[in-house]
Sequence to fold (859 residues):
Amino acid sequence: MSSIPVEGVGRAREGGAGGMLRHAVWMLRENPLTAVAASGAMALCLIALLAPWLAPYDPLASNVERALQPPSARHWAGTDQLGRDLLSRIIAATRLDLAIALSAVSLSFVVGAVIGAACGYAGGPLDRSVGRFVDVLMAFPLFVLAMAMVAALGNRVENIVIATALINLPFYIRFARAEVNVRRNAGWVEAARAGGESHLAIVLRYLLPNILPAMAVQISLNLGWAILNAAGLSFIGLGVRPPTPEWGILVAEGARFITTGKWWLVAFPGLALMMTVLCFNLLGDGLRDILDPRMRT
Amino acid sequence: MSDEDLLRVEDLHVAFSTRRGPVEALRGINLAVRPGETLGIVGESGSGKSVTAFAATRLLDRAGRITRGRILFRGQDIARASAEDVRALNGAAISMIFQNPRAALNPIRTVGLQIADALRAHEAMPTREARARALGLLKSVLIRDPEARLDAYPHELSGGMCQRVMIAMAIACEPALLIADEPTTGLDVTTQKTVMDLIARIITERGMAMILITHDLGLAARYCGRIAVMQDGLVVEEATPGALFSRPQHPYTARLVAASPTPTSTIADIVADRPRVAHAPCPAAVRHRPSPGTPPLLEVQGLTKRFGDAAAVDDVSFALKAGESLGLVGESGSGKSTTSRMICRLLDPSAGDILYDGEAIGGIPARAFHHSPHRRDIQIVFQDPNDSLNPRFSAYDCIAQPVRRLAGLRAEPLRARVLESAERAGLSSGLLDRFPHQLSGGQKARVGIARAIAVRPRLLVLDEPTAALDVSVQAVILDLLDTLRREDDLAFLFVSHDLNVVRMMCERTIVMQNGRVIEEGPSRALFESPRSAYTRELVAAIQHFAPDGAAGERGPQAASAA
Fold:
């Protein structure tokens, strides 16, 4: 229609879901580290899902005759003081730890993003009061706060999730608030207002999807942190109770034997913990590149 | 061509490595600048004009590489010089003025110190002397009250003053060649003129050569001895301004010249080869004759907006009839955008009335206006197409969402309406699945227009709708808007700083300054014989080139302080 064919020349590009997949593949090929982290995370999820079938022994079955055996062909990670197979216990713990971390992070993400986005969009008294609440929350040593909560509410998995979610909440609120705040006066938000969108729709359908890529980084970093937190609580005896296999408990129980040279009891659960956290941290940066539509050209 | 060339670019190729393989930004260009000469490089975005400047100063970013050719500065090949040699040349022999002066200055250092840094980068000198020289430079760029400005931070200065500071830094080491990359693009028209006059005067006084890179043909015509026109990484034509504008040799140059608005052009003129029979060009003034006695579509009475103590808009009143096009003109800070946002009901006025169809809508708070039945009657086309589309919505969703909300259409009728609007806005349906970042600037502008007209409004507020677009795209978009207005009997409130555009698009024009209406009247009369001094100044500041070859008044006159 236009008489001047300067616009739209040679710009044939793909969009839609196919483009998203192709983009993800391209990104993973360009960033091998992200690919490693992604496959690691996927492997972790598979282990968690298939734990009962993957574990070579019953993680709770004790066998005193075989107590405190070092790693061998029969017990790849050795056995503990009750003769339970350590590898099976680590595999079984993956499910619990990932479940705690995922539910805690999802909870704080959903609640934090909505509260933060609402504050960033509305500003005014709501923003100020929530902001001060967040400041107060962050003034506590967060781990001590989580300890206190679990101690007060009781040593149950739900309470660990709630405590972990709550101490993560301030970061999500602040992050979402800041990200929304820089966009609230963007042209496309004003355009949405001119297009008759309600404020709720603007926050939920326009602003939140736009801050998602940045928040994905936060989520991934936080997953690692939440796992550490849950393990930490269990380590000091305020988390999951033995004999349930959990990485923190495994490390705590193994720590008693470290002076006697039973290194495997601490090393393998610790390694599992470390690799998992590293995996999610590496994934964080990769995720941002994949989710941001502007990186997809 | 000869040894006397200061800078000679020979067969220069620059490639950028992207994920789709290397992209050639420059495909073999030849240019020469003699001492004391001003060469203009004109082209639209993506033509490679800025890449040329960055290659000549070796400031290409990491993805860019000079793949072939030579850049000879006084016989020395910059393309192959060592990083140290380049550093010695930059600033001392070649210096650059950038497009956005505020971004180019360090926000946490006073301008005096920054000028001193530029001086001491190439020559050791005591602090006291550097300060004295910096003061001298500030005086030579005619900044008001230079002693006080020496200790000012960039945020305390206006855009024009920042650009003066940049000029002072660029000339600090007496370079032989100045490269100015869109030096006045972000500035108001009156400031543009004084800054350009200042640059022209300084290079004449100091016998410097200049490469002026610009998208503005009028600016190039006025200040350059020779102009090179670039398109897609090639120099397609090089000539003196007179020859270029009266007898363009290359079809692209011809199109570019035709698309640039002049004081006498009409919409039909700037859209080069549109079939003229379809829409016979009719003069703007006689286009619309509302029957007498009809109440105005929009009436604004005593509209005021205060931010703190300062009034951004101060007691503005005007009326707009159905189907009429009203221009709102002024420089930055004149309150024209604030006025348009209040009328769109995106911003609440501090005082005054907005009557739409005789009904007071100014009292409805902006945050509740999306419930109003008038939301769909008043729509807006935003200034920056890059910023006004949701990055997460496809073009289709961008257009469909307001239709869903305001017209209540769903399923097939919705789809039909979106396709119809896109087609009327000149957007092919194949583009509707794309996301904003996959569209060109012109295509995004069309999405913005399609979105605004899709709900069938009666009043369209256009906030500098073409300011971010290339001139040839601007011509097509203006023509499109004009056609849509006539077909739908839309009323336009056309906000712009570009007087030529407003004169073509609007029957009446309002000139604003410091939040107040300075002058109002029929566009043609207003621009031909402005009554107020401010309007006269605005009109005089437009960089004209006359297509018949007499390229305005040649040569800059003495600059006056801004």
